[in-house]
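Input (Sigma-70 family RNA polymerase sigma factor):
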Amino acid sequence: MAKKDAPPRWDRKMQQRLARGEAAALGELYDRFASLVHGLAHTVLGDERAADHITHDVFAHVWEHPDSYDPRQGPLRSWVATLTHRLAVQRLRATETAALARAGGQGSPEELERKVRHASVAARADYIVQSMPVPLRAALELAYFQRRDYRQTATDLGVTEDEARRRLRLGLQLLSTAHDAGAAPGAPPGYGGAA
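Output:
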């Protein structure tokens, strides 16, 4: 039996392959996480081209600095999401600061920080929903998008009403952590940090 704090085997192997400079490893990593990276970047920036640039920057950083990921600190997925969040927020701050300067006093640094916080919470919520177990996500999607109550959700999912309530409660509890200001999307301890 593996130790509780041992990183997943795939994460360790991928980090080792990237450190050896295996281009195929970067391709596999891209295939696995490109939609996550692009989606998070787009959520923060609200711009398709900017999200494309961040996606490129994230995978370039991973390729150039594979040793900056430590498998003992948490899943590779969380590290990639945190890196994406950090780069996207940096870009958002830079573009919004430049826009403030061009506007000649229109807007304020407080408005900029409010926009950054809002984008960070949205990105974290997206990451949490994508990462939560399928049964929880399915219950939340039924309740939110199809406006089902817990009884209807139980019927649709083929579970008891108690189980439907439990899934909805757990899903909402996970989602409520999106407002934790001190953490980047999905960041485990050690990969967090304020936006």
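Residues 114 and 140 are 27 Å apart (CA to CA).
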